[in-house]
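ESCALATION

Customer reports they have been waiting on this structure for their group meeting. Please prioritize. Original submission:
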Amino acid sequence: MKGLVAILGGGESGVGAAILAQKKGYEVFVSDLGKIKEKYKDVLSNYKIGFEEGYHSEEKILGAELVVKSPGIPETAPLVKQLKEQGTPVISEIEFGGRFTSAKTICITGSNGKTTTTLLTYHILQKAGLNVGLAGNVGKSFAWQVAEENFDVYVIELSSFQLDGMYEFKADVAVLMNITPDHLDRYGYDMQNYIDSKFRILQNQSANDYFVYCADDEVIQKEINKREIKPVQLPFGLGEAAGPGAGVRDNRIIINFNQNQFSMSILDLSLQGKHNTYNSMAAGIASMVLKIRDEQLRESLSDFTGVEHRLERFLKVHGIEFINDSKATNVNSSWYALESVHKPVIWIAGGVDKGNDYTMLQGLVTNKVKAIVCLGKNNAKLHEAFGDCVADIVDASSMEEAVKAAYYLARNGDTVLLSPACASFDLFENYEDRGNQFKKEVRNL
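Update from on-call: job pushed to the front of the queue and completed.
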């Protein structure tokens, strides 16, 4: 029997890592400071994997030869600090899974658009008949799939927190959508720390790998100029594509790769709006690297149905449209949402503020927003940022209250937009729970 692998966190990623560790002959122990969901307890029991919840048996964990940590646990947690001080490797589930597979990986990160791009890329590859898995922030745990499936390719959405725990892992195709301030509370309120975290997606890449990135993003451009980039660079942007990569000409997206040129009208893309043009170009380039044929790519880019909780046009009630954008957990996401709506907006915003700077939204809010419904335990920053921009700004302490207030403030032809610009953990389990509650309350109107 190999030594002990301790898993911190008993959610999807932790349980997946536990199953893989057991399969590879390690002794395994799962420890969660909070409660473990029943469905995961059942899985651990079925596999006869030991676990605890509500506390950490520190002595046991400190004796492990390797610790796999949930991305939700900060590096500053006392137990994590102790482990690192004594030299115990603390890694992410993705890093652990990567050690036991030789499958090709397309890894996608960015402050915004990464889920849509990941699901779109997966859709293209799956439709083209590739044996492909979906993992990371979406889909099933990567380690779990490595343990029990046999995929040739994985499309993996990576958050900065997952990247922070990755050391030897390498992406065959690394995709960086954009970098805007997010999670600064976890990065000592220092933007460079967050940028460095995102650029970890390039670690261990060689000249045989690919780096797909947004050329229109000033932060990325500036950073590329400072670094030695080894992989083949494939930029995308809304200007013309000069060399390999993607761009726009005469309302068509053009992708150049290896003497191939793919072209398609922007109007035929299933995902409309500027931000979605970026998402479609990034997914398109990644797919061309994997030799997807033009007609398959064109078909998939035109029939993809989008992502739940991301600018999801949900229902119309008495001429008022309700849009669920619960996945907008940062300011930049909400900027895209507000930018894409062309009717007067009643905006439901708020939650756990991650060090947000709302100034970039003030122009859009002044021009488009009639009223704001603040949904969070502490709404002072929203009042301060937008009190002078809109006539009505009200507080709500539950989704029921928020939807009713928005409905009351809206008129026929208006749009009620849930796009919180904040994390959801003060009132909800996660952004899905927040979006589902929104839809339930809209149905109840």
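Sent to customer with the following note: The chain has 17 helices and 20 strands.
Escalation resolved.
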